[in-house]
Every structure is written in structure tokens, then in C-alpha cells.
Amino acid sequence: MKVSMKINGVEYERDVEPRRLLVHYIREDVGLTGTNVGCDTSSCGACTVLMDGKSVKSCTVLAVQAEGAEITTIEGLAEPDGTLHPLQRAFQECHGLQCGYCTPGMVMASLSLIKENPGLDERKVREGLEGNLCRCTGYHNIVKAVLQAADEMGVKA
């Protein structure tokens, strides 16, 4: 089947098997490898991207279901000149990562969380990121990073 979508502002059109997962389309067909495959069961969230502004686990979406959608991956957050998005910068400044495997999905889920939930506090961030697993950090610095970015983005109450 032919599928077309915009990924990080660039239009892509490819022929795909109807069963092709969006995560594999992004990584293998388009070549954007920042989106990670962690579990293939939607348990970890390492593959989280934004689809039409909402976070989705791209291992649960078929590429054909994303027909006509606007997809944003971790590669699409920084400015063209390399300036990091406030959330990326906050993860760096607050040491919200260790091995980094979960980081792309965690950042994308956090961005959606910030945009959809003004007035975030520690409890709301922890609850909002329950579907994204980190096996290294204990989440404290991730929560700190999300709250710092929300404040910088003018979303925190």
C-alpha cells in the first residue's frame, strides 16, 4: 500500500506492507533512528512520537494508519541550527538520562504531557509518564526536567 505522511516537516511517500509498524517505517524506511524499539509490546514507550500533536507509541500504530498525519520524532525538536528544544535542554541540564535509551520516547511523551496539562506538579508528571519506562534513573531527574521545561515554556501554573 502507498502511504504518505509528513515527518518532522518533510513529506514522505513509500509503498509499505499493510502490517508495517510506524516505528519500523520511521527507522528503516525513512532512516530516522532516534525513535527506539524497546519492547515491541507497547510496554516501555521508547518508541513514543507525536502524531498530529499527540503522543503515541509507534509500535502500536500501523504505518498505513498514519496516512496523511504529521509525525514529530526526537530529531524534529531541535532548531535547524542545532539549538535544543527547551525540553531537550532541561533533560540535559537536570541529568534526566543515563544510558539514554528511553530518552527519545520520554522526551516526546513529556512534550505531549506539558502541552495537554497546564499546571503540572510532580505527582501529575509521574502519573503522566507511567507508560514510559526508564531502567536507569529512578525518574527523579526526569520529573525535575519536565517541570523545568514546562516552566520555561510558560505552561506550568
From TrEMBL:
Q: Where is the 2Fe-2S ferredoxin-type domain?
A: 1-77
User: Would the keyword Oxidoreductase be found if you checked this record's keyword annotation?
Assistant: yes
Keywords of the record, alphabetical order, are: 2Fe-2S, Iron, Iron-sulfur, Metal-binding, Oxidoreductase
Give the pathway listed in the UniProt entry for this protein: Alkaloid degradation; nicotine degradation
A Gene Ontology molecular function term of the record: 2 iron, 2 sulfur cluster binding
> Iron-sulfur as a keyword?
yes
What's the name of the protein? Carbon-monoxide dehydrogenase small subunit
Give the originating organism. Ferrithrix thermotolerans DSM 19514
